[in-house]
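Hi V.,

Quick status before I head out on leave. The structure for the redesign project is tokenized and pasted below; the design run finished overnight.
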């Protein structure tokens, strides 16, 4: 069950109304935890047990981290968490190798969510954040019961946002007591979320069919896209890039809207990423909760405190490759991460170069034409990287063929 459809609407309405009852705080939190477990159970009866095993293991490690255990010992204790982090994305558990329809294919592009392991990689990322923050601050953000409520919070368990425990705690005391502002903002978020994901996303998914079904065998024989014109290929590329945004941002809006109905205020997850003038700014607008997770727990630790000029470039490449492999441990997502890491590395080098040319830097910052050029360049770079994962992420032959078609080389 997603946050879309009659069953989901009835489930959300029931939880919101139950939390609005004049119950003690502990009863409301218990009720929400039960709702979270039920939401997981709808996918598979074992899903709540898988969550509980992962969450309790991480909480135990976090307690040790808060007491000062660190380094190799803490890293070794976190190794088992890599299983639920990557296992759901392995092709053995997904339908990535089967192109049943255009909608299914575009779903593969943003990561297939398997019913059995639904949300595993998201709640594991939250658990790792909890562990790492406990080690840094020598304290736990939440006690065990509230930690379980936060990490299994049903609006976010399927596709994020990867809400931080410290931010979640800010509005946790208001659980079940939404204000008029919360209800108005929640209604607006749910409306925009449905508009993005269902209406606009549905149209874009159809327009993206030439790329998402490219190379698939047709029922009557022949391969889909074999005689596609170059301009049709570009239209499909733009559609699949916009679909990725509308589909993901739409679901994030739904999660934020439902949360506001419960009195909880989650952090925004998207901020016009395709209107950004550089790849670094793109990642300040795309999937913000994941972007900041990568920055805080991968990129900055990889950079360290070294004055090395090379280390930031290696950190950008390394952190983004890991980001790609988290989406899907295969060749396409690895190359997608490598491409974005290379883009960030080049942007970093350009930024450093501009620091020694202050007048040029100021002129470019004030130039509308330069900003528009940057937006167009960034959008097309990101759009082209989607070809690595929207056709066949396990083999690159079809991707190369599609790129040749785009640039009139076929």
């Amino acid at each position: 069950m997603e946050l879309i459809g009659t069953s989901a609407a009835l489930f959300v309405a029931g939880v919101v109304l139950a939390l609005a009852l004049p119950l003690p705080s502990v009863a409301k939190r218990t009720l929400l935890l039960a709702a979270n477990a039920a939401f997981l159970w709808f996918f598979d009866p074992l899903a709540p047990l898988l969550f509980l095993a992962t969450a309790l293991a991480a909480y135990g490690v976090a307690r040790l981290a808060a007491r000062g255990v660190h380094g190799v010992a803490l890293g070794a204790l976190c190794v088992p968490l890599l299983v639920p982090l990557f296992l759901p994305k392995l092709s053995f558990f997904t339908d990535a190798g089967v192109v049943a329809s255009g909608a299914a294919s575009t779903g593969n592009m943003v990561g297939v969510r398997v019913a059995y392991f639904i949300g595993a990689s998201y709640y594991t990322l939250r658990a790792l954040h909890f562990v790492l923050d406990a080690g840094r601050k020598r304290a736990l953000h939440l006690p065990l019961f509230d930690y379980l409520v936060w990490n299994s919070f049903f609006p976010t368990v399927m596709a994020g946002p990867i809400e931080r425990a410290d931010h979640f705690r800010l509005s946790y005391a208001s659980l079940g007591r939404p204000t008029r502002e919360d209800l108005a903002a929640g209604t607006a978020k749910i409306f925009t979320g449905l508009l993005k994901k269902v209406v606009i996303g549905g149209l874009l998914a159809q327009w993206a069919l030439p790329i998402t079904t490219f190379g698939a065998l047709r029922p009557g024989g022949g391969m889909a896209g074999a005689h596609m014109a170059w301009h049709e290929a570009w239209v499909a590329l733009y559609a699949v890039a916009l679909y990725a945004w509308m589909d993901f941002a739409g679901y994030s809006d739904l999660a934020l809207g439902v949360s506001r109905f419960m009195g909880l205020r989650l952090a925004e997850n998207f901020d016009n990423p395709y209107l950004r003038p550089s790849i670094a700014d793109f990642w300040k607008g795309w999937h913000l909760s994941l972007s900041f997770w990568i920055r805080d727990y991968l990129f900055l630790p990889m950079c360290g405190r070294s004055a090395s000029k090379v280390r930031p470039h290696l950190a950008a490449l390394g952190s983004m490759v890991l980001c790609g492999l988290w989406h899907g441990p295969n060749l396409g997502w690895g190359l997608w991460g490598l491409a974005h890491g290379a883009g960030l590395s080049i942007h970093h080098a350009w930024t450093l170069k501009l620091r020694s040319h202050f007048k040029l830097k100021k002129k470019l910052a004030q130039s509308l034409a330069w900003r528009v050029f940057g937006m167009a360049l960034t959008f097309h770079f990101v759009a082209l990287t989607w070809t690595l994962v929207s056709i066949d992420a396990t083999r690159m032959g079809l991707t190369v063929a599609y790129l040749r078609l785009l640039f009139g080389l076929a």
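Above is the designed sequence. Residues 183-406 form one domain.

G. will cover questions while I'm gone.

Best,
W.
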